Each structure stands twice: as structure tokens, then as C-alpha cells.
Amino acid sequence: MSKSPGHRQHPEHKVLESRVPHTMKVEVDGVTVAQSDDVIRVDEDQAPARYYFPRSDVRMEMLAPSSVTSDCPFKGHATYFDLKAGAKPLEGAVWTYESPYDEHLALRQRVAFYDDKYPQIRVQGG
Known about the structure:
Number of strands: 10
CATH topology: Metal Binding Protein, Guanine Nucleotide Exchange Factor, Chain A
Order of helices and strands: HEEEEEEEEEE
Helix content: under 10%
Radius of gyration: 14 Å
Strand content: over 45%
CATH class: Mainly Beta
Shape: globular
CATH superfamily: Domain of unknown function (DUF427)
Distance between the termini: 30 Å
């Protein structure tokens, strides 16, 4: 894609990626939505740790495209999914960077879960 404008304008802002050395799992109301031993942890200043799972290890049939989008000056344009679990879908509970900035290409084709926004989402193993 291109270089991140956020990293150029704010070099002091940290967005650190690291491989998780063990298996991680995401459950919603007791149902496993994702499980992988290939997870990237992202630690960004002033944000909770986020765990990015490869799509191949996520039950993508439980996700429906959402109209929600956002732009991060450090990582890129995010598109969201609603998570179909339980009686009511969790709107915009999952996101992805289809074309992240060059500094965060490892996040491409991965999804992260809003476990702080939706308490029924449990990310385990981190």
C-alpha cells in the first residue's frame, strides 16, 4: 500500500507487533469463534492489547460484513464484521485491515475482536 502518515507525523507513537508463542482462542457465549497458534499481538499507545487471528483460523461463517469502517493513521483503513453469535448479532465486533500501511503488512488477512466493547467476547491465552 504505502507508508503510514501516522508514523511519519508522530514517530513517538508506538504500535508494536509481536507473535504470540502459544495458542489463542476467542469464545462468544461458550462457542469457539477462532483458535490459532499464529496470532499477532498489537500493543499500541493508549489502547488495549489486540490479537489478530488469521482468517483461516476463524469461523468466518459467523461473521457478516458490516457498513462500519474506520481509518487509523498508523495501520490503515479498517472494515468491520458483525458477529453472529447468540440471539442478537454483535454489530461491528470484528475488524480487519485489507490493505494496511507498509509498517503493518503482517496484519493483512487477519481479524481482531472488540472484547472490551462486548464482554461476551472472551479472548483467551494472551
